[in-house]
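For reproducibility, we list the full input for the flavin-adenine dinucleotide complex.
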Amino acid sequence: MSCILVPNGTPGFTTKKMTKKMMWRSSDTGELYFDDCRVPEENLLGKRGEGFHQMLQTLDNGRLAIAAMGLGGAQGAYELAMKYAKERKQFGKPISTFQINAFKLADMATEIEAARNLLYKACYLKDQGKPFGKEAAMAKLYCSEVMGRVVAEAVQIHGGYGLMKEYNIERFYRDHKLLTIGEGTSEVQRIVISRKIGCYDVD
Ligand SMILES: Cc1cc2nc3c(=O)[nH]c(=O)nc-3n(C[C@H](O)[C@H](O)[C@H](O)COP(=O)(O)OP(=O)(O)OC[C@H]3O[C@@H](n4cnc5c(N)ncnc54)[C@H](O)[C@@H]3O)c2cc1C
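The corresponding predicted structure, in tokenized form, follows.
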């Protein structure tokens, strides 16, 4: 496999806007069609035959970005849940003082802190020019799944308002899902990690 640049306007190259997404509606997503599309060899990106390796390297970096989105989303959902739990009163007390909710917030804060440290370690390794593929996969898997757990409980803390569009937490709930699917699904991250830790005696 090789990577080759196909400029916009090349005959045979067409695009179609994808609509009706559940989440990330402000992010433009399109289908690309290459029908008998021809471009000169000088458009080769890097060397012939290196495409697969180039794409894998791209994924390692992309996983850091998705992990950061998961971490930021988890932090944002946690802050919204904390704010709401302190404002909302039931039985004469803020719902944050009910132990079940306080413990949920404690679990969120703990998982977010662990996610942050995992991601920062992966970024540190990359900054040092050291291998970071395993840590990037771990950070992507963990941060995206932590966001899933945090937003689910954050919606729960909001009660019925958590399901209404007038409260931002509803968007976090939808936006989170792509993070466990894009840039390699959670299942694929587990395959990558299990290879990297030597389960199959291959890299
Ligand atoms: C709007 C949008 C934007 C996206 N943006 C990006 C992006 O920027 N970058 C990016 O990388 N991806 C992105 N994706 C995700 C990407 O397009 C694919 O959806 C994703 O890689 C999963 O592939 P698939 O949909 O073909 O699922 P499939 O490969 O059909 O997988 C279906 C299910 O089977 C599981 N599965 C598949 N193979 C295995 C296996 N070998 N072992 C165990 N389980 C397996 C998967 O984990 C999944 O749960 C985006 C998706 C959408 C909808």
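Residues 21, 24, 29, 178, 181-183, 185, 187-188, 191 surround flavin-adenine dinucleotide (CB under 6 Å). Helices lie at 51-87, 99-127, 133-158, 169-176, 186-196. Both points were considered when choosing residues for closer inspection.
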